[in-house]
Amino acid sequence: MAGGITDTGELYSPYVGLVYMFNLIVGTGALTMPKAFATAGWLVSLVLIMFLGFMSYMTTTFVMEAMAAANAQLRWKRMEKHKEDDDDDSSSGVSDSDVLLPDGYERSETRPILSVQRRGSPNVFEITERVEMGQMASMFFNKVGVNLFYFCIIIYLYGDLAIYAAAVPVSLMQVTCVTGNHSCGVGDGTKYNDTDKCWGPIRRIDAYRIYLAAFTLLLGPFTFFNVQKTKYLQIMTSLMRWIAFIVMIILALIHIGKGEGEGHPPLAQLSGIPNLFGVCVYSFMCQHSLPSLITPISKKQHVNKLVLLDYILILGFYSLLSFTAIYCFHNETLMDMYTLNFTNCNITNIAFIRYFLGLFPVFTISTNFPIIAVTLRNNWKTLFHREGGTYPWVVDRIVFPAITLIPPLVVAVCTHDLESLVGITGAYAGNGIQYIIPAFLAYCSRKDTQLVFGSGTVNNHLSPFRHIFWIWFVLLWSLFCFVFVTANIILSETKL
Fold first, then answer.
1. Which of 180, 184, 232, 429 has an alpha carbon 20 to 30 Å from 284's alpha carbon atom?
2. Which residues contact 128 (CB under 8 A, 6 or more apart)?
3. Structure pTM?
4. DSSP per residue over 367-412, as a string?
């Protein structure tokens, strides 16, 4: 995410890209969605998630349009450079036939850009180079805009790390503490307080902090090094995630089919809307990873339609997961981390399934935490980087990793309310990444494209929502959401 132009990697078909995008979007946020549905009411939740899915799709098309505009500008700059080189060579007496162009570009690419297009050469707006969002921000925004972009990304990643740092100890605490007191798990309707005993004199909150300390000691050091998620690790975590989701849906449907469903969700409960908004925004988040996802797709003619299909499938999946949850479990017993509801013997007698689902977040989140931490550290470095400058060893190897690791761990020590962490992260930083940044990228890239190529040039990846009304609509919606969520938090605190 720390802006830069990187290799596109191996190409894949549009349908493989559709699967990758599905895997990217459906993650940890989905596990907190059932509780958010139950607190907001099923009708309000259904309407809101459909609307937010539509909004996320719209801003996804904005980012793809900006990616195409960035690719076109990079090609144009190379063409200008080649023309200058040709002029220099001609003036020094070198013939055209002797000039070798770098990067395998043909002679036609040194001609004016509209001339190239008229001769049937590939469209300059084709997305062939991976231009990350940070690089696009640098191309289309001024200095203040670039700094605000990185600030937004950093806050979002801090929220991600705080959610991950709390989710693993919470899962371990719920599974291990409950098994010490009951034969089965936390989904039996028993409500536990942080001050309840876990093992002997050890309270549940103490167990949580012990697990948080162990999590920090085991995974924290990776922040000081460079790590990346390997292909096989990605396949393994994706496989585990889908097994877990499918098993949860099937078990909930079986329980409801037997007439044992305990859920009686309300139609609407306005007090739950702000948190549901944050959870839904977080659960539809993909805009920051689109360059690495869309660029390797081999045929992009119908990429907008494929992305729309992906969003429809994801919307259906979220609805299925959440509705089976809110009708299977009583509203009061739904856990922040939905997997923990399946540690109850009333749902399944198979101990392996109960422990697999209860500990599922531990396995998947533990593999993601170092990756997110290193990404955040690199964004800090990019934000403060100055052309030609280098960081002292202490700053590079100690200070940046420390400011990456400490804040989310402090948040995790202070609270393990996962629903609120996800809601706040989505409602604030997620609001910026999913709405504000894509809208400004689309607006600024359109202006730059007109200046460079003229008003008659058409971006073949132009968003279907090309009218300026949609950009203003997204910005006004993001402002409304920010004010609404903030007002709700303030009013909730004053009531306390």
1. 232
2. 8, 71, 295
3. 0.82
4. HHHHHHHHHHHHHHHHHH--TT----HHIIIIIHHHHHHHHHHHHH
